[in-house]
Design brief:
heterodimer, A: about 240 residues, mainly alpha, 14 helices, about 80% helix, globular, B: about 240 residues, alpha/beta, Rossmann fold, six-stranded mixed sheet, four-stranded antiparallel sheet, 9 helices, 10 strands, about 35% helix
């Protein structure tokens, strides 16, 4: 009940502060724009959208997702509204979930509004729509992971800019440690274990499977585990700050 | 209705509140006096369940704040010191949100919001965005949220801070009126407020109670002046928050 109330308040706030519109428009333009330019959509005739469209998503999300959630807790600390929330008959866990679900919903909308590219590939060819759906699912779960990381970081500080910079840095590391050029470089000089570790820790190997239509259990455990750890961590940080 | 026994709060090595005990009954308005940094806000934050206690017991209407915080919090209306609000909301939207958080729904919620708006004289700004409000209206909006669920206990941290003389007068009158059928704990460092709104007062210094009594008793202890007593029993500098 209280999770739902906080979800509605946060969602309304994203739209009154224009954050949601900025995210939807910028993500839509950049993701579709990159598919048709650097993504070489026409050259590869990539009907599954795996490489031309979805491949860019973690790169965009590692910056844009923390931009949405950087204020999640830092703003509550800065304005003192955390004191109101903390004295209402509501558990901090439901407040964390309400805020997290609201930011995830904004991103669900942003992803859904890139539908013209799906309509285009269906019009131009005969794509496997399950693979496309699986790609979207992969993008959304990567996005949720970055949002949860950013939620945890913003619980530490009342400064939104610090929250943004640290969150982007963590998401950058998680994105780039599993990307092909980095893996190839490490493979040349490092051990096989290091390569395995990096590709397991990075989001790309898990994400690319999803864009190919493979939803694997280890990948689901990786993402859901990371999200859960970050949200539980947010709760612990908020509690410890009051101790 | 508020029972506090042996309350202690320590931040690292620093003791902010030390072995504090007091009670507030129904129909009583307890003024919590003390210099800046005496531990008033820390005590209120513990009484309202925002800060965990280091040691001691807090009971709100017989419910332990430490054992059953959610149930105890339902009984309390709280106005924090800085009157924090969500600036992107309208006054009415904010009050609706707070009422929902207190578990009110439908007609009960609409009635509670209307009554709080009327009680705190917010009709003229009800549909205005909070970030455009003056300090007085911000304070009253935060006070309104504390009244929404008709709580049996009110904890008000410096409710008249930053208000103009007319607004201060109105808020004191409101506290006195609300105190008739509730237990009110309110902090202030303005001594005139004690005789204007309180039925009893305690003076806190460096986390401990140093004087306790009705406004008349305290004045007598100070030789006819409350400020004289205040100066006598409190230190000039207090390090606690």
């Amino acid at each position: 009940m209280n999770t739902w109330t906080i979800f509605k308040r946060e969602l309304t706030s994203y739209f009154t502060q224009l954050t949601a519109y900025a995210v939807i428009v910028i993500f839509g333009l950049l993701s579709v724009g990159l598919a048709f330019t650097f993504g070489s959509f026409w050259r590869y005739e990539d009907a599954s959208l795996s490489y031309s469209f979805f491949w860019w998503h973690p790169l965009l999300l590692m910056i844009l997702a923390p931009a949405v959630t950087m204020r999640l807790w830092s703003d509550e600390h800065r304005t003192g509204t955390i004191e109101l929330l903390g004295t209402m008959p509501v558990s901090m866990g439901s407040a964390i979930l309400g805020k997290f679900f609201a930011s995830a919903f904004v991103w669900l909308l942003a992803l859904a509004l890139t539908f013209p590219i799906v309509v285009s590939v269906n019009w131009l060819g005969d794509p496997d729509n399950w693979t496309i759906f699986s790609g979207y699912l992969g993008s959304f779960i990567v996005c949720c992971t970055f949002l949860a990381i950013s939620s945890l970081v913003s619980a530490f500080t009342r400064d939104q800019v610090v929250a943004l910079i640290v969150s982007v840095a963590i998401c950058f590391i998680l994105t780039f440690c599993g990307i092909d050029p980095v893996i190839n470089e490490v493979r040349r000089s490092g051990s096989a274990e290091t390569v395995n570790l990096l590709s397991t820790l990075g989001v790309y190997s898990h994400f690319l499977d999803a864009t190919r239509g493979l939803i694997r259990l280890p990948s689901l455990i990786y993402f859901i585990g990371l999200i859960s750890v970050c949200l539980v961590g947010t709760n612990l940080v908020l509690k410890s700050q009051r101790a | 209705m508020i029972e506090v026994k042996g309350l202690r709060k320590q931040f690292g090595q620093k003791v902010a509140v030390d072995n504090l005990s007091f009670s507030v009954q129904k129909g009583e308005v307890l003024g919590f006096l003390g210099p800046n940094g005496a531990g008033k806000s820390t005590t209120m934050r513990m009484v309202t369940g925002f800060l965990p206690v280091t040691a001691g017991e807090i009971e709100i209407c017989g419910i332990s704040m430490i054992g059953s915080p959610t149930e105890a919090k339902r009984k309390i209306g709280y106005l924090p010191e800085s009157a924090p609000l969500y600036n992107d909301m309208t006054v009415q939207g904010f009050l609706k949100f707070c009422a929902s958080m207190q578990g009110l729904k439908g007609t009960a919620r609409a009635t509670a919001v209307d009554e709080a708006i009327e009680t705190c004289f917010l009709e003229s700004v009800a549909s205005q965005s909070i970030d455009t409000l003056s300090k007085g209206y911000r304070h009253r909006t935060c006070l309104a949220q504390s009244l929404l669920h008709n709580p049996e206990v009110l904890v008000l941290d410096e409710p008249t801070d930053g208000l103009d003389p007319n607004q201060k007068f109105e808020v004191r009158k409101l506290i006195k009126r609300l105190g008739k059928d509730r237990a009110i704990l309110f902090s202030t460092h303005i001594l005139e407020e004690v005789s204007a709104a309180c039925t009893r007062a305690v003076i806190v210094d460096q986390g401990s109670i140093v004087a306790d009594g009705t406004p008349d008793e305290l004045e007598k202890q100070g030789g006819g002046s409350l400020s004289e007593l205040f100066r006598k029993v409190t230190s000039q500098e207090s390090p606690a928050a």
